[in-house]
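User: Hello! I'm new to structural biology and keep hearing that structure can be predicted from sequence alone. Could you demonstrate with Membrane protein YqaA with SNARE-associated domain? Please show me the input and the output so I can see what each looks like.

Assistant: Of course. The first part below is the input, the amino acid sequence of Membrane protein YqaA with SNARE-associated domain. The second part is the output, the predicted structure written as tokens.
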Amino acid sequence: MLRPLYNRILQLSARKDAVWWMAGVSFAESSFFPLPPDVMLVPMCLSEPKKLWRYTNICALASLIGGLFGYAVGFYLFESIGRLIIDFYNAQDSFQRFQDMFAEFGPWFLILKGVTPIPYKLLTITAGFAHLDLTVFILCSIVARFSRFYMIAILLHFYGPQVRDIIEKRLMLVTTVLLVIVIGGLLSFKFV
């Protein structure tokens, strides 16, 4: 089901107005759309390496704004729209687990999960539903989304096309390894 949509989104990355399409996909993925913007970000950055940071910033900013929409859906429209999105993705169990994790870990959960390629829409809707403080949500989302897309940009910057297959096939593994490195680095400062 997703393969034709994936192929269509990939085709959009070659258009002259691709940056707008990527921003739209990034916005939508944070609140309801099934595919991550990486599908467009990676080929766009590879085809125009000088625009890598510009594309990454646009992608992260659009994701942040889309996250605010997802938060509003969870906060104000959960019964009418939010529940439909959760049910569409058959994510009732994840939604309940995320509520429990928000209750236990609060904003740290949003930062850690927001960096991974799990569907961000589930986090944003759950954060709104859980009534996580909006300022905290925004700050955590800035850290999470910019970190997530910057990890991809850094890999593309240093390794270029050869990393594309790795990112597409093993995005969760790449993200987990980079997350462990970042957390390990932060913890090393704490204990020094």
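User: So the tokens describe the shape?

Assistant: Right, they're a compact way of writing down the 3D structure. Reading them back into a model, for example: Residues 185-192 have pLDDT under 50 and may be disordered.
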